[in-house]
Amino acid sequence: MPLVTLRQVLDEAQKREFAVGAFNFNNMEQLQGVMQAFKNTRCFGIIQASRGALKYTNHDFLHHLALAAVELFPDVPIVLHLDHGDSLDTVKKVISLGFTSVMIDGSRLSFEENVALTRSVVDFAHPRGVSVEGELGVLGGIEEDVEGKSAFTDPDQVEEFVAKTGVDALAVAVGTSHGAYKFSAEPRIRQDLIQETHRRVPDCAVVLHGASSVPSSLIEEIDRYGGSMSKAKGVPIKMLQEAIKRGIRKINVDTDVRLAVTATIRRVLNERPDVFDPREYLGEARKRITSIVEEKTRAFGGANRVPEDFQPISLKDQAARYSRG
């Protein structure tokens, strides 16, 4: 099955009221672990790469990893998505590599500048059949080169932003943040903002970034084997499930995959100090990733959601749909 567009996947999620998990990857083991989970749960899959991942792997290495995933998992409908693109040039580069979806993050610009940047990306991407995610409001925290001080999405700007930009999906700032340290007190997100955004733009999929749950079992394991992450805190699964009921259709997860890798490697090297072959500890980490992603997919309601007669829309046909409005 060829790569599919984010728009087609999110249309399915909108129609059937579930959320699709979007998982970041930086290397082969991460991608293999995520893809195996997608296959096991018969779900739509979004694999996404940040600017940091593209820099770490080199664009071409990452591109070919994604192509291998498509070839080796032919029954999984996969979206290849750019996470937190910062410029039209970055968008042009990844689209030339075959990405079927891009996120442009103009959230730290003024409203007018954000609209202009996002519109320029839509004008380039849609004629090529590529879906676009924008962002309104600023997520706090830090992850790779994505850093900022929180500013909630203003619901009074949502309709204007979507109308002027033409985005397929909108990331909102509702209290989540990037990284492992999302809350200093009890976790809380603005479910009312999610619901109001979905009400105002029902045809635009609402996206939740910074949504890793930071499972306590992984934190305890990391600390047991020499780490120091006791203050890490994420978004509880029940809170994410409530957000899905309010209208969230795409949930970004990165930190939980990293924690799974780190916890597993620390444990294996501590319990088996004679191990020196990376395949042994990375292989175990890969299995752990699969387990974590399967849990998330089921919790988001995404398992067994691919229709038996599902047919991916080609980029050419998607472009034609965009041109018809």
From TrEMBL:
Sections of the chain in a coiled coil: none
Gene Ontology MF term list: fructose-bisphosphate aldolase activity; zinc ion binding
Cofactor note: Binds 2 Zn(2+) ions per subunit. One is catalytic and the other provides a structural contribution.
This protein's UniProt keywords: Glycolysis, Lyase, Metal-binding, Zinc
A Pfam family reported for this protein in Swiss-Prot or TrEMBL: F_bP_aldolase
InterPro entries the record matches: Aldolase_TIM, Class_II_FBP_aldolase, FBA_II
Record-listed Zn(2+) 2 binding positions: D105, E135
Enzyme class: lyase
Sites where the protein binds dihydroxyacetone phosphate: G179, G210, A211, S212, N252, V253, D254, T255
UniProt EC number: 4.1.2.13
Positions bound to Zn(2+) 1: H84, H178, H209
CC cofactor: Zn(2+)
Pathway(s) where this gene product acts: Carbohydrate degradation; glycolysis; D-glyceraldehyde 3-phosphate and glycerone phosphate from D-glucose: step 4/4
GO biological process: glycolytic process
Superkingdom as given in the UniProt entry: Bacteria
Reaction(s) this enzyme catalyzes, per UniProt: beta-D-fructose 1,6-bisphosphate = D-glyceraldehyde 3-phosphate + dihydroxyacetone phosphate
Protein family per UniProt: Belongs to the class II fructose-bisphosphate aldolase family.
Stated name of the protein: fructose-bisphosphate aldolase
Organism: Aerophobetes bacterium
